[in-house]
Amino acid sequence: MTSFSTAGEFINSGEFVVDVACGTASTCVVTSTGRVFSSGAADFGINGSGMLVSSQVFRELEFFHGILSPSPLDVKRRIEEEQLQQLETLRKNMEEMGVDRSHFPLRPFEVAQDASEKMNCSEATAGLQPPRFSMNDPLQLPKVMCGTYHCGLLTPEGALWLWGRNNCLQLSRDKAVMASGGESNYPLLAEFFARADLPLESCALGACHSLAVASRSPYNQCVRAPPSKAQNGI
């Protein structure tokens, strides 16, 4: 019987995996701090490290340093800090106006049921700004994908990066290295969606085709097939 072993020795303290994808010959992982790792065969540059070196251990793709958004924990911390700043501003306004603070919450968001009847905070809250972040808004996380000969990463902003063998795709009409029939051992931006200002919500990689779903349009498909069978080819 095959035994399972932990493969997360490369994860730092306080860091966690937000997405993992397994392909035919490679595996990709993205962490909460925006670090991307891959392992497996390096044929066609599928490891994305810029070197055609296969690896049985996870190697970090340093290319993505600074590209991904802050981690969900950082966003959550910023939300909490902004809420506390708003609360402190409200306290100061009420002190300056001499408002009775006996019903004011000792801790954030703990308000007595009758507090609204016994204190008028309309003037004190007039200068408060609406929060830039909301805990109710879903936090977009980076996603990784693995196909047979190529891998991809979708950023929270909707930008798609692909690397590996892309003879089934045409990422750009202007750059020969990204044209159909090429191979790349480092990540390349799918410029079609960037030029069209189409942030993507999801993407999937197959053996000979990829499917991308944009937030403001139907699906866009990159496919290798006879002309009679290709649909919405890019």
Task: Kindly describe this structure.
- The two termini are 46 Å apart.
- The protein is built from three helices and eleven strands, in the order ββββααββββαβββ.
- The chain has a domain of 137 residues: Methylamine Dehydrogenase, Chain H (7 Propeller), CATH 2.130.10.30.
- It is of the alpha+beta class.
- The chain is 15% helix and 26% strand.
- A four-stranded antiparallel β-sheet has the order 1-2-3-4, with no helix packed on it.
- A hairpin with a 3-residue loop joins β9 and β10.
- The C terminus is likely disordered.
- GO terms for molecular function: guanyl-nucleotide exchange factor activity.
- It holds the Pfam family RCC1_2.
Strand content: 25-35%
CATH topology of the domain at 17-69 and 140-223: Methylamine Dehydrogenase, Chain H
**Cα Rg:** 24 Å
- The number of distinct β-strands equals 11
- Which range best describes the helical content: under 10%, 10-25%, 25-40%, 40-55%, 55-70% or over 70%? 10-25%
Indicate the structural class.
alpha+beta
* Secondary-structure element pattern, one letter each: EEEEHHEEEEHEEE
Distance between the termini: 46 Å
CATH level-4 homologous superfamily of the domain at 17-69 and 140-223: Regulator of chromosome condensation 1/beta-lactamase-inhibitor protein II
Mean pLDDT score: 69
| Order of adjacent strands in the largest pleated sheet | 1-2-3-4
What's the level 1 CATH class of the domain at 17-69 and 140-223? Mainly Beta
CATH architecture group name of the domain at 17-69 and 140-223:
7 Propeller
Count of DSSP H/I helices: 3
Low-pLDDT parts are 108-112, 114-119, 131-137, 223-234
- Anisotropy-based shape: elongated
Describe the sheet with the most strands: 4 strands, antiparallel
GO molecular function, one term: guanyl-nucleotide exchange factor activity
RCC repeats: 158-216
GO cellular component, one term: cytoplasm
